[in-house]
Request: fold
Amino acid sequence: MLDARKNAEQDPSMKRRLTFSLISGVALALAALAAPAHASDSPKHEEKPNRQEWSFAGVFGRYDKAQLRRGFKVYKEVCSSCHSIKMLAFRNLGQPGGPEFSEKEVAELAASYKIKDGPNDTGEYFDRPGRPSDRFPPPFANEQAARAAMSGAYPPDMSVLAKARGYSRGFPTFLFDALPGLAYQEHGVDYIVSLMEGYSDPPPDVKLPTGQFYDPYVPGRRIGMPPPLADGSVTYDDGAPQTIDQYSKDVAAFLMWVAEPHLETRKRIGLGVLSFLIVFAGLLYFTKRKIWSNVAH
Ligand code: HEC
Reply:
């Protein structure tokens, strides 16, 4: 290196060549960083979920009520036999910004569930019909019971699942994902959709233990959940297609609402605050000009 520098001092063309190789070196390093990591080529690594269109994405995003209702139906008829949503009360389904079921619908839904209550005056526990203020009863009494029924796997609670799962979109996209306006926060729902659609036969060299299924989108490419959806397994009454694709998008959107019921309010307030800050910055600028206008400089 020292020699090279000494030579460069004597020979300007050498200097140019050195600068050129330095610049191309940095450019190459950046290109290597920016290229998507081809993790999916390796059979051990999962594939990146496909990006979907969501009504609730972006600064002006709002939930699609019809979609939330369909998603709830899929959860109720399919996922709820294994997955709990401990944080969700029946009455939440009637609140603004969600599926917005009527009071009567919520009361009827709650009453169709049996809730464990007690102890009563004689010290006994008993079952009673649910009330809107009750939370959704879990399908299993405890984790051990769930694992025993599921060959050792544990179906996670779905209260915040849509926000607890995600994936890295890689450099440089992840830098933009945090910026207002460009922000992308739908990794969890994208993942759920790809997971539902990704079940497939394992490649010939992969042997799966019993109770495990092959899915290229799951970390490790295997999962202890049997494929829960099939075309036509849930009946929609609003004419939406009854396909795995539609079911998984609807249930993912519903899980997003469960995990973040106040998303619409958050986005509305955020937008208001940003507009205020922009106006305020303008006012501050003109105030500053006025205050300093008489000072010679
Ligand atoms: C037969 C029981 C069963 C049903 C029905 C079921 N699941 Fe699961 N689910 C599981 C089990 C068990 C796991 C844990 C798998 C593991 O740890 O390998 C799981 C895990 C998951 C995960 C987490 C995967 C991860 O990254 O850890 C998601 C998301 C999920 N299920 C979504 C759903 C959705 C959506 C439905 C309804 C359409 C559903 N499940 C229906 C049993 C079920």
The two ends are 50 Å apart (CA to CA). Residues 19 and 51 are 41 Å apart (CA to CA). Residues 74, 78-79, 81-83, 150, 153-156, 161, 165, 192, 195, 218, 223-226, 228-229, 251 surround heme C (CB under 6 Å). The mean pLDDT is 88.
